[in-house]
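Exercise: predict the fold of this chain.
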Amino acid sequence: MNIQYVVTFVVVLATIIAVINHRFLKLPTSIGVMLIAITVSVIIMLTSDIFPTLFDNTTKLITSVDFSNVFIGTVLNFLLFAGTIQIRVKDLRSQLLPVLLFSTLGVAVSSFAVAIIMYYVFPLLNLDIPFLQCLLFGTLISPTDPISVLAILRESKISRSLETKISGESLFNDGVALVLFFTILHALHNPGEGTSFAEISRIFVQEALGGLALGVALGFVGLRVLKSVSDYKIEVMITLAIVLGGYTLARSLQISEPLTMVAAGIFIGNYGKAYAMSDTSGDYMDKFWELIDEFLNIVLFVLMGFELLLITHFSNYWLAGLIAIPAVLIARFVSIYISSLIIRLQQEISIKTIGFLTWGGLRGGISIALALTLNEHHHGHLFVLTTYFVVVFSIVVQGLSIEKFAARRKNKAPAVEL
């Protein structure tokens, strides 16, 4: 299908859905557009016998969009940079230990907890899934999604420290999750080779630390270039070039593109605006990236809603999808609780805060994109449907209730700000 036609149709459709949400539903944009897209998808599916051409054409259109490649390869990098230029280093430094633990130890613990739970649940549903494949599902569903988190937290009223914990974790846990996911996938493709801890460590250092180092280097070079010009239009173009050139360079060096964008965004957002840009330039840059962020978020959540049309074997796996929702929440609670035992050595963290961090860990496009890379040999249909159930519940139910959860927690424990 012609790429121009696909892009045009998706953008026009996303705009119409965004307007409908703004005029009538008045929900947070990411949640509203996804709900509308899911509703439209369900209507198309239910009327497929009456309007087969509409169903076939819509499915063909959605199939023509390689969601995994578009999201992980391109869109995620723009959204991460747009989100991180608003994060203050001072806030991040104050919550450095929780952010590091949640995004490393937390992801690993959650991945194994999900794997263990589902390994014993699947046989009860007459599904024979090996533990290593359950662990593969655990790694793809455990990372909190920065796009979902940032989009919803932006419209929620929670304390700065809590927001930094959740958003910081979501921005940095991609490296760990992606390394675990692709390492396990490699082991499944090459069962005779095995994968040593040393090899996993090497991949992690190359991907994660390499990405952070490249991001800082790009930020430093960008800072020097920004100092040499005083035209806001060119300065905004420089930030755009950092993103486009940065993730292309990271890909060619085989290091983490998302972490490269996170580091570059934090550097430019803190030091670029403070030392190399006028207030006018900084304001234009913020508005430009805010527009990019809002536009791509709307398109992304619309696409996630219409991915429902690609889900098959619904009648076989829907119960597994429902059971996976509490399983993922339990695993999330366990991972946060274990991490909090170490955090308590530095700062107090209450059980109510652990509960909020559990509920506020939203899943999103990253999990769906990873699930869509799996073939039937790795139970792709099962994991895509199960992932979709968890993501929709996470974004809609958890996303809509997170502000009420925070308000209730604040009323019960006004002295706790962590």
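Check your answer against the key: Residues 215 and 263 are 5 Å apart (CA to CA).
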